[in-house]
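Give me structure tokens for this 247-residue protein.
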Amino acid sequence: MAAARPQTTEGPGGVGGSGGDGPGGTGGEGSPPAFRQAVADLAGVRPRPEVRLRQLPAPQRLAPFSYALEATVTSLLRAGQESADEPEELADGRFVLLHDPAGQDSWQGTFRVVTLARTELEPEMAADPLLPEVSWSWLTGALESRSAGYSEPSGTVTRSGSSFFGGLADRPQRTELEIRASWTPHTAAGAAKGASGGAADATAAPNLASHLAAWTELLCQCAGLPPESGDGGAVVPLPQRRGPQSP
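Here you go.
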């Protein structure tokens, strides 16, 4: 599994850190009320125990206001196991919220979610020709199951493989799945006005908690974890995963 990016702050089970003020900030008093509400929604998300969320420095050039999180999915202790030196990392990724009060034409809204999810696969699984379509359906299915309204989705699903030679020849082949996706989250008011032909309310905040919850569900699907409940995910998790790698 690819190593996670350096982390900044952490909260128990959720998101830590308070963020800064002003343009490019992460929800401080200088930010628009809609953005502050969206960041508060994200900070209140408590994912399943295998998922750890951490705040990251937000990108400064994509929008006037932004907020970024990193997620890592790790294995839990097995029944009867008292401790583990290092939990296995099964998947990781980033979730970035962008806000431009003036809106952007490509977004068709004032908010945009930009994400990355990745995991390591067995080469045989990565060779499945349906893998890209199935992986993308995990995201759309998770958003729909959480009633997280969205529009203008775009993204890529990439399979990449590495072979090792010379002094590294004893390492097994390595194959990684990477899902990059972005979409415009809907506000309840904006969706209603859009359906009736009216203009969306630029001052309203979408329910970003449902979008983050859907994205962490995608990460868990990538990691091969079973659904938390019987109503589960839209697609069966990957059946083959690579075990812990040698340093």
